Amino acid sequence: MPEKPKIGVELKKMQQEYEPLLPVEKKLIAWSLGIGLTLLVVLYFLSKLLPDSHRPL
């Protein structure tokens, strides 16, 4: 009867097998970060331009 694989051994095997990111994955990461940072800046300046827009009537 074969022995069950140990979790620690399997995790070490997974950590040793490094796969570099594909160019498409790098582009997706860059676009996501760029869009996120751009939206943060735009929303920040909108909140400075319209400071009373969040007050209830």
For the terminal residues, how far apart are their CA atoms?
A: 74 Å
What's the tally of helices?
2
Pick out the low-confidence regions.
none
Shape: elongated
Approximate strand percentage: under 5%
* Arithmetic mean of pLDDT: 84
Number of strands: 0
Main sheet: strands, sense, barrel: none
Helical content stands at: 55-70%
Oligomer: single chain
* Rg measurement, Å: 24 Å
* SS-derived structural category: mainly alpha
Q: List SSEs in N-to-C order.
A: HH
Helices and strands in order:
Layout: H1 7-16, H2 23-49
Fold and architecture overview:
It is built from two helices and no strands. It has 57 residues and is mostly helical. It has a domain at 20-57. The model has no long low-confidence stretch (mean pLDDT 84).
